[in-house]
């Protein structure tokens, strides 16, 4: 195992950091911004090549891996970026990149890389909890001539409120299919709302939506494997994003401990807070290691090993996030619980990251399963 | 020693339980049981029923309108009302100012304020904490300067719970700037509509706004609104804080939330999850141990290893256990914590993303529960205080 | 619930405390003493009426309950008494008291109360873990005329090395029988050894041991109920004993924190130790409450409720013991790990108490089962 | 970044694994894997094999007999030897004194001592701690007074590991009584058979006796046995303690014990217990995170949030994780921890009460594991040191 970063990776990180520091100044983090502003930022990220980082060069991307995306995601997490990087660049982009025909890639992937198309991922359903087997999905396809009709409901679609299209997972006779559905498809209605951390989310209702064969990315085992792979990729991305958010929480707590006085001394002089702060830093550093392990596993390892290490990383990061969040709030006192203080916004971002595509229990099961298979 | 309550105590418990069943409005009950937000009207509706029954001020002496209950009865009342889904008694007039007025107020002050408190006609806000001070009350900077028959008050109070529900304010102010911390502090009463007072809500991270800031800009307060003696305010504040902490173990609230955990586990088809079942069992056992300890302290003639520190220890253990329960609720919620709707939190309408269940409130409740180890003197301060008693005695 | 202690209970506690302070001076706690000395102490305890506390008056006892025995056990735990009070006075005595015919009571119970007969309890078996159902026992009775033959092995018999007799649990055609077997019975061999905390323990091997009907205390459902009841009683006793040991550990740690200097200040001035000491005291006080609850439940409650509260008490006490033991050792530093320091002897006593007749997992299951039945 | 080790590193790992398989005595391996006590002869037997292979001093520079490994190779060596059931390298001569002699010793001292250390012919005891001092080394009271060509040493050292295996002692002594703590300390070497030295074993609560007291009564030590300069001993001691802590994360030992947990769960028919399975999974994941962090620190060009505090953080996390694993082993043991036999701990005979399995060692191992957060500077001291770096930087 080698954690050293190449010169190119370092340069990329620096570029992203400059972009984030400029576009997400501290006072704006966690605050609502206009759709125009977000569109503008998205364009800048495309120009910097961030959206197409893992997209093939033929579609205008850089053909890099999760290790490179990790650097981007960490910075976006550090700045509480509400941009649809996870849904569009990490999830949908990589699925179309891996599965799409060259036609599909030209149609959807190239505009994604250019920042012109935002594609969200519709996987969860209201009834079941993280049940990602096709046989449990109530979103179903039925044949109609050479085409399909899609019916059912998808929930918890992150960045789904103003996406231009969706990658949808549905079942057809018990087999998984992954499809691309434009947001303006006839028969698709979306109900929009807000996440706990004030990002956009939607429930999609498909009522006999016509799906042409050109919209099908993959089916059956090929789709299953791609879904497993993209879930691992997403988990690695969530780890990186969380590390960014935790870094900032630890930093803010450190600053607070150094300046805030209570009973005549700065908080940092109290031994119980010193020791607990050490534990926060240990948790953060372990998370940083595990986010890197997850990214490397996605880039390098076979499916079983990748699943094992990625689920270990999610558990490890989620536990660290819980500890760091609680301590950051407690040490900031009542102030840490206000909307005005940034602490709460980071805490909520971490809470959502913990629950997207599998919570701790789910990841522990994944880990145990992949260990059993590997052994 | 006796495991069971006496038949008389059991009969009292039944009476309270029946009263809650008969009198508590079902919409209020639904909000409480689902962890949603209550309006002032919800509290007043319930408190008025308690007033009519003579039960609104269990902590007050009988001659001032208390029901004359034993400690066990008070305990059972708390438990049964909370288990039945009734709102807590959050009014600072009842919990905090009342006991201080009764102990230290003039007859005129008592006549003027106590009846309105009991009838929920007058709500009092507490002005203790200040920016930059937190649990360190003694370092406050709000001043009151004597000017004829008035004090002129200037300063800035924060973390004032429910001030937007209130018409009056009790307040700690510095009347002797040269005195040491904890000295030179006085305890003043004022109308919130006195010129120069401004209340600003503090928005909290879970969307709630129970807390406020209070700005005091040359506020003229009549001298007759002083409690007790000038510069003795710290004594009255300590008396008040002692009252605040009894019941802070929150046994009833913990029991109610544990019922909620069990209900949610069932509703979500997770009864077969051995991890959650074990956690529930562990927390149930911890709650039994805490409850037994609370009752043992009420019993009093037992030796207790930390005399004087009982309240702090119950506060520490009780709040941390409640936080553990809220964290388990948050775990049980799974992906349902991702969407959030302020409307759903107020039961003003059902959010279509969330459906008609309460799961989205679980994230907000978890976030809110972090306050338990912060307010009323942080748990760090409680442990400091307790350890001094334990290691110096 | 009422935790107040009567005047008589207080007097009894004081008497026991005086006895213990005299007979178990601090420097002797945890040290081996001669069999003669132990026999002498046992005689004194009988004279004080401690052994017969819960024995019926017709057999020379005081007919009192678990609440009274709790006071004795707490003191014995505080002094690390190695006397067979648990096995003889609490377990065997109460079984014979509850089940025995008047003949059996005169034969065994009266001498127990007088300190002339030490009877240990043989329940566990080598194969299974806390499996107290008759059907799982490999100790079996077979009929021989009007009598029985007993064969099989019993393990973890506390105080079994020099007991005069044993109460033995065995199965006969799937039904439980409780028997009294003298230590010198033909066909009974015992292998003796030491517990972790240096008390005596034995494995008993029964090879066709003749059991007359006069030795049978109870069989079938009556025996089952009695076994459940005595297990609850034993658990309550272990809680009381543990509270005594924990009290002493907390006291010793308090003294150490007050006098031991490190880096120029007494340990008690370090805030992290202060806070952790507070948590030790909270754990101790909760254990004290729960030991009382367990004793009251044994004396008052029906079988289901008793089982529920007693298992809650054992979990609660075991958790507290673990916390207090770890902290006492850590705060004493390397010294706390030496045989010379008393801390380790208390820690080991608590470890054995945690594991006798059910560990934490076992008690959690008991609690969940009795809650389900009660609900 | 690269998830896998290089083919060269993997080949090295295989080489070490094969060496352990071929060379480690099966009785020694059985003792290690079952947590039983080892004799000096067990250690010497294994160390001699390592010496013959040139692997006995991985931490020493190549020119002094080290194998010239990269940090990753040292890491793999530790992991593979421990996973294979080999004894740890406990000899203080190899781990502690060797690096100090190499850095600060005279050529004569090096020639005199290093070869014997490598051949396990000479075993060194460490005389640092004193009664009443513990982690607070600077407050020591053992003195050395110059008398011609000798120092006269008087004092009392404790917690001297394995002194009963040793023939030599390195020791911190006060050579300037008037100096501040941490100054006026010197670093002396002596033969344990010098008149005036008495080693007394300290019996430990789990029955072991790896620790000793050393009494020094007018011990005459030649001046040439001084390391470096007089009164500069604290510098050498700090250098030594820095060396001691590397590898203290104990990844290999933790992995070995986790294998043991899994084996015991299977052996005891508890594979269906979901609680134990979840705990194993949780600890496995924590170990992966610790291992990754250790390797990341070895890699170095990564930013690490707590520069300088890496060793302390690995010590804290590594020892606490190992304690958790030993506690899980202790849980898995169930009632089998009740009986205890010192003979069984030494594999000198099988105790009939316990049978032929290792379960009785689990209580002793659990008790023994408490030392992990005490020795090498308590975890409290490590957190103090780390927080200073984090909050002052």
Automatic annotation (TrEMBL), chains A, C:
<dbReference type="InterPro" id="IPR037069">
    <property type="entry name" value="AcylCoA_DH/ox_N_sf"/>
</dbReference>
<dbReference type="InterPro" id="IPR009100">
    <property type="entry name" value="AcylCoA_DH/oxidase_NM_dom_sf"/>
</dbReference>
<dbReference type="InterPro" id="IPR013786">
    <property type="entry name" value="AcylCoA_DH/ox_N"/>
</dbReference>
<keyword id="KW-0285">Flavoprotein</keyword>
<protein>
    <submittedName>
        <fullName>Acyl-CoA dehydrogenase family protein</fullName>
        <ecNumber>1.-.-.-</ecNumber>
    </submittedName>
</protein>
<feature type="domain" description="Acyl-CoA dehydrogenase/oxidase C-terminal">
    <location>
        <begin position="229"/>
        <end position="369"/>
    </location>
</feature>
<keyword id="KW-0274">FAD</keyword>
<keyword id="KW-0560">Oxidoreductase</keyword>
<dbReference type="InterPro" id="IPR009075">
    <property type="entry name" value="AcylCo_DH/oxidase_C"/>
</dbReference>
<dbReference type="Pfam" id="PF02771">
    <property type="entry name" value="Acyl-CoA_dh_N"/>
</dbReference>
<dbReference type="Pfam" id="PF00441">
    <property type="entry name" value="Acyl-CoA_dh_1"/>
</dbReference>
<dbReference type="GO" id="GO:0050660">
    <property type="term" value="F:flavin adenine dinucleotide binding"/>
</dbReference>
<dbReference type="GO" id="GO:0003995">
    <property type="term" value="F:acyl-CoA dehydrogenase activity"/>
</dbReference>
<feature type="domain" description="Acyl-CoA dehydrogenase/oxidase N-terminal">
    <location>
        <begin position="6"/>
        <end position="115"/>
    </location>
</feature>
<comment type="similarity">
    <text>Belongs to the acyl-CoA dehydrogenase family.</text>
</comment>
<dbReference type="InterPro" id="IPR036250">
    <property type="entry name" value="AcylCo_DH-like_C"/>
</dbReference>
<dbReference type="InterPro" id="IPR046373">
    <property type="entry name" value="Acyl-CoA_Oxase/DH_mid-dom_sf"/>
</dbReference>
Automatic annotation (TrEMBL), chains B, D:
<dbReference type="InterPro" id="IPR037069">
    <property type="entry name" value="AcylCoA_DH/ox_N_sf"/>
</dbReference>
<feature type="domain" description="Acyl-CoA oxidase/dehydrogenase middle">
    <location>
        <begin position="125"/>
        <end position="219"/>
    </location>
</feature>
<dbReference type="InterPro" id="IPR006091">
    <property type="entry name" value="Acyl-CoA_Oxase/DH_mid-dom"/>
</dbReference>
<dbReference type="InterPro" id="IPR009075">
    <property type="entry name" value="AcylCo_DH/oxidase_C"/>
</dbReference>
<dbReference type="InterPro" id="IPR013786">
    <property type="entry name" value="AcylCoA_DH/ox_N"/>
</dbReference>
<keyword id="KW-0274">FAD</keyword>
<dbReference type="InterPro" id="IPR009100">
    <property type="entry name" value="AcylCoA_DH/oxidase_NM_dom_sf"/>
</dbReference>
<keyword id="KW-0560">Oxidoreductase</keyword>
<dbReference type="Pfam" id="PF02771">
    <property type="entry name" value="Acyl-CoA_dh_N"/>
</dbReference>
<dbReference type="GO" id="GO:0050660">
    <property type="term" value="F:flavin adenine dinucleotide binding"/>
</dbReference>
<dbReference type="InterPro" id="IPR036250">
    <property type="entry name" value="AcylCo_DH-like_C"/>
</dbReference>
<protein>
    <submittedName>
        <fullName>Acyl-CoA dehydrogenase family protein</fullName>
    </submittedName>
</protein>
<comment type="similarity">
    <text>Belongs to the acyl-CoA dehydrogenase family.</text>
</comment>
<dbReference type="InterPro" id="IPR046373">
    <property type="entry name" value="Acyl-CoA_Oxase/DH_mid-dom_sf"/>
</dbReference>
<dbReference type="Pfam" id="PF00441">
    <property type="entry name" value="Acyl-CoA_dh_1"/>
</dbReference>
<dbReference type="Pfam" id="PF02770">
    <property type="entry name" value="Acyl-CoA_dh_M"/>
</dbReference>
<dbReference type="GO" id="GO:0005886">
    <property type="term" value="C:plasma membrane"/>
</dbReference>
<dbReference type="GO" id="GO:0016627">
    <property type="term" value="F:oxidoreductase activity, acting on the CH-CH group of donors"/>
</dbReference>
<feature type="domain" description="Acyl-CoA dehydrogenase/oxidase N-terminal">
    <location>
        <begin position="6"/>
        <end position="119"/>
    </location>
</feature>
<dbReference type="InterPro" id="IPR052161">
    <property type="entry name" value="Mycobact_Acyl-CoA_DH"/>
</dbReference>
<keyword id="KW-0285">Flavoprotein</keyword>
<feature type="domain" description="Acyl-CoA dehydrogenase/oxidase C-terminal">
    <location>
        <begin position="231"/>
        <end position="389"/>
    </location>
</feature>
């Amino acid at each position: 195992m080698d954690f050293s970063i190449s010169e190119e990776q370092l340069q990329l990180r620096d570029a992203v950091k400059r972009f984030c520091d400029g576009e997400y100044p501290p006072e704006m983090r966690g605050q609502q911004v206009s759709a125009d502003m977000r569109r503008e930022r998205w364009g800048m990220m495309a120009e910097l090549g961030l959206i197409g980082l893992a997209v093939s060069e033929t579609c205008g991307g850089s053909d890099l891996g999760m290790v490179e995306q990790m650097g981007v995601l960490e910075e976006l997490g550090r700045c509480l970026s509400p941009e649809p990087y996870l849904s569009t660049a990490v999830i949908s982009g990589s699925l179309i990149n891996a599965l799409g025909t060259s036609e599909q890639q030209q149609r959807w992937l190239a505009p994604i890389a250019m920042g012109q198309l935002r594609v969200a991922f519709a996987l969860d359903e209201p009834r079941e909890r993280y049940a990602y087997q096709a046989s449990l999905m109530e979103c179903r396809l039925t044949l109609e001539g050479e085409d399909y009709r899609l019916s059912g409901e998808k929930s918890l679609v992150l960045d789904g409120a103003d996406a231009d299209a969706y990658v949808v997972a549905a079942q057809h006779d018990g087999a998984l299919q992954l499809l691309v559905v434009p947001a303006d498809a006839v028969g698709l209605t979306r109900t929009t709302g807000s996440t706990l951390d004030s990002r956009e989310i939607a429930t999609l209702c498909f009522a006999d939506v016509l799906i042409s064969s050109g919209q099908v990315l993959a089916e059956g085992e090929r789709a299953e494997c791609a879904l497993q792979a993209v879930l691992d990729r997403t988990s690695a991305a969530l780890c990186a994003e969380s590390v960014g958010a935790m870094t900032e929480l630890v930093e803010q707590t450190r600053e607070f401990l150094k300046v805030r006085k209570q009973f005549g001394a700065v908080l940092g002089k109290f031994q119980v807070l010193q020791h607990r702060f050490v534990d926060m830093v240990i948790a953060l550093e372990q998370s940083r290691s595990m986010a890197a392990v997850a990214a490397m596993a996605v880039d390098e390892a076979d499916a079983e090993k990748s699943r094992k290490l990625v689920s270990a990383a999610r558990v490890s990061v989620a536990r660290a996030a819980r500890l760091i969040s609680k301590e950051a709030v407690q040490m900031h006192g009542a102030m840490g619980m206000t909307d005005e203080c940034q602490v709460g916004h980071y805490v909520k971002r971490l809470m959502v990251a913990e629950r997207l595509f599998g919570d701790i229990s789910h990841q522990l099961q994944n880990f145990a399963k992949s260990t059993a298979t590997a052994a | 020693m006796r495991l069971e309550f006496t038949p008389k105590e059991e009969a009292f418990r039944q009476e309270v339980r029946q009263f809650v069943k008969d009198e508590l409005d079902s919409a209020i009950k639904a909000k409480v049981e689902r962890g949603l937000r209550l309006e002032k009207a919800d509290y007043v509706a319930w408190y008025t029923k308690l007033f009519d029954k003579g039960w609104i001020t269990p902590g007050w002496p009988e001659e001032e309108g208390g029901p004359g209950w034993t400690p066990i009865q008070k305990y059972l009342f708390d438990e049964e009302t909370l288990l039945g889904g009734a709102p807590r008694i959050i009014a600072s007039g009842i919990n905090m100012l009342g006991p201080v007025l009764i102990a230290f107020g003039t007859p005129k002050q008592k006549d003027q304020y106590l009846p309105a408190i009991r009838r929920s006609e007058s709500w009092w806000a507490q002005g203790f904490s200040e920016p930059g001070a937190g649990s360190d009350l003694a370092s406050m900077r709000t001043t009151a300067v004597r000017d004829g028959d008035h004090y002129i008050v200037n300063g800035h109070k924060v973390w004032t719970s429910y001030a937007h529900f209130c018409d009056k304010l009790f307040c700690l102010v510095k009347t002797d700037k040269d005195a040491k911390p904890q000295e030179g502090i006085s305890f003043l009463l004022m109308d919130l509509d006195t010129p120069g007072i401004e209340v600003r809500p503090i928005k909290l991270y879970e969307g709630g706004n129970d807390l406020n800031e209070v700005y005091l800009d040359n506020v003229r307060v009549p001298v007759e609104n002083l409690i007790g003696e000038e510069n003795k305010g710290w004594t009255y504040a300590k008396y008040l804080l002692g009252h605040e902490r009894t019941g802070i173990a929150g046994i009833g609230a913990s029991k109610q939330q544990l019922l909620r955990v069990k209900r949610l586990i069932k509703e979500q088809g997770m009864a077969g999850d051995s991890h959650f079942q074990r956690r529930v069992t562990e927390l149930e056992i911890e709650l039994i141990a805490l409850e037994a300890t609370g009752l043992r302290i009420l019993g009093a003639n037992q030796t207790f290893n930390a005399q004087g520190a009982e309240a702090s220890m119950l506060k520490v253990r009780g709040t941390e256990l409640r936080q553990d329960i809220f964290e388990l609720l948050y775990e049980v919620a799974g992906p349902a914590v991702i969407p959030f709707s302020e409307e759903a939190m107020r039961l003003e309408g059902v959010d279509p993303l969330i459906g008609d269940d309460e799961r989205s409130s679980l994230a907000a409740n978890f976030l809110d529960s972090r306050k338990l180890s912060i307010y009323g003197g942080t748990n760090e301060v409680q442990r400091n205080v307790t350890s001094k008693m334990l290691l110096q005695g």
